[in-house]
């Protein structure tokens, strides 16, 4: 169940609501400046898994967005499902330079690929980045410093920039502070910006590979049920690419909505719980509107 059209219009006359990708005409992307010039060797180790399947058009850009940050304690691995479009050749060129590892072969879908990749890394902090998305400049150092300085925090995430297939900016998701109530109704956490502790990942059993679309929301809900502490960082950390072949568009109705309903039935078992979550989600959306306008032309 999505946000009613009339509510969207009330929230944003321009049509913006968290969940909308193309919010304005394409324009040059405005990337954040790194907050620190030099990474610190005391930072925790970070592991990034990149699941991929036939993404030769985008994957080099996605890999470079991670590696070019020169994070000093980074492990990156690409888990390929058996691409036939040249993706593997591109990735192997990076692997031959020693900058990442790659495994290619049949799998049971994206969730299975992420789990396979996670099994191949051993770091303090973990994340996955889809092979058409970006990690924005300075994101890794920002995340690493926050985890180092806040040992009681288990999960962090931030704002996203939405890009088209030519890396032009077409939207922004500017997120209010973390709200457990809002995320029970719909996952507004921007997956490409989310990082979490390896200890939490192992405690909850990793990605549920019965999900092929809403695995990120399911993961967030199970983290919350396990008592994880979340923090939204007030910084743009990731770039989400919207394009014609994107799974988020192609699978949303046929696979995504049934999986959303499956999660809601589990996390919101009563009418009272559903109403409370709807109210929390509406408040969250309202709070996002002035934040968006502040960042629209910063």
TrEMBL record:
It comes from Ilumatobacter fluminis. InterPro entries: Glyco_trans_2-like, Glycosyltransf_2, Nucleotide-diphossugar_trans. This is Glycosyl transferase family 2. GO terms for molecular function: transferase activity. Keywords: Transferase. It holds the Pfam family Glycos_transf_2. Residues 48-199 form the Glycosyltransferase 2-like domain. SUPFAM superfamilies: Nucleotide-diphospho-sugar transferases (SSF53448).
């Amino acid at each position: 169940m999505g946000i009613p059209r009339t509510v969207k219009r009330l929230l944003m006359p321009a049509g913006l609501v968290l969940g909308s990708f193309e919010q304005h005409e394409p324009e040059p992307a405005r990337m954040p400046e790194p907050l620190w010039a030099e990474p610190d060797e005391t930072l925790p180790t970070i592991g990034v898994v990149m699941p991929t399947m036939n993404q030769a058009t985008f994957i080099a850009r996605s890999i470079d967005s991670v590696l070019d940050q020169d994070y000093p304690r980074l492990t990156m691995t690409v888990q390929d499902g058996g691409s036939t479009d040249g993706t593997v050749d591109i990735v192997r060129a990076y692997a031959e330079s020693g900058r990442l590892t790659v495994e290619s072969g049949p799998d049971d879908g994206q969730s299975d690929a992420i789990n396979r990749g996670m099994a191949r890394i051993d770091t303090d902090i973990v994340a996955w980045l889809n092979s058409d998305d970006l990690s924005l400049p300075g994101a890794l150092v920002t995340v690493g410093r926050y985890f180092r300085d806040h040992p009681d925090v288990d999960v962090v995430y931030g704002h996203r920039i939405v890009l088209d297939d030519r890396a032009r900016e077409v939207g922004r998701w500017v997120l209010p502070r973390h709200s457990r109530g809002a995320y029970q109704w719909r996952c507004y956490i921007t997956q490409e910006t989310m990082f979490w502790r390896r200890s939490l990942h192992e405690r909850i059993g990793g990605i549920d590979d019965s999900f092929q679309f809403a695995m990120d929301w399911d993961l967030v809900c199970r983290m919350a049920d396990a008592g994880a502490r979340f923090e939204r960082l007030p910084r743009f950390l990731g770039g989400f690419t919207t394009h014609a072949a994107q799974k988020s568009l192609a699978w949303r109705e046929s696979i995504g909505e049934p999986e959303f309903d499956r999660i809601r039935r589990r996390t919101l078992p009563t009418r009272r719980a559903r109403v409370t979550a709807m109210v929390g989600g509406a408040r969250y959306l309202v709070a996002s509107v002035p934040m968006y306008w502040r960042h629209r032309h910063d």
